[in-house]
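Design job #97: recover the sequence.
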């Protein structure tokens, strides 16, 4: 049993594909252990993506992540971190496999519809960025 943080980014919420995305997680054996819809400020988006602060896309990425509401979730299941990333597809939708969320919904490498933790360490930081222990069931 493993937990990972998933985000449906502003482009996914705007396209109204929240249910489609959650259905894909559930069909693949992941369970929603916590969930909420929130609108990040620029500063909150910068804090979440602090690992990317030296990257050239940091400013544009954090503008995008704060442009509208997002849905944040804790997903739980066997190999949840790797499984979530497999369901999401490659960062750049041009390289994403057919049937993945990014292949079906993402516009480009930045507006790529979903986020998923990439390691147990980042899952731990990212889950605690949004949820308290009392909110994860
Ligand atoms: P995420 O962390 O959102 O799950 P990822 O792990 O596939 O995605 P990262 O390398 O961690 O990709 O990049 C974080 C996010 O930054 C990407 O999801 C995307 O929104 C944006 N991003 C990544 N590379 C670029 C790029 N070359 N140009 C613009 N935005 C980018
Ligand atoms: Mg990442």
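Job complete. Output follows.
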């Amino acid at each position: 049993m493993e937990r990972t943080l998933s985000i449906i980014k502003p482009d996914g919420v705007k396209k109204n594909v929240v249910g489609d995305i959650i259905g894909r997680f559930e069909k693949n054996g992941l369970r929603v252990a916590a969930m909420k819809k929130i609108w990040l400020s620029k500063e909150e988006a910068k804090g979440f993506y602090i690992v990317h602060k030296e990257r050239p896309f940091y400013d544009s990425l954090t503008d995008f992540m704060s442009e509208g509401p997002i849905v944040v979730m804790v997903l739980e299941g066997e190999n949840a971190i790797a499984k979530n990333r497999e369901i999401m597809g490659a960062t750049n939708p041009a390289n994403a496999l057919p049937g993945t969320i990014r292949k079906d919904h993402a516009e480009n490498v930045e507006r790529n519809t979903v986020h998923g933790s990439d390691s147990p360490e980042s899952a731990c930081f990212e889950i605690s960025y949004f949820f308290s222990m009392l909110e994860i069931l």
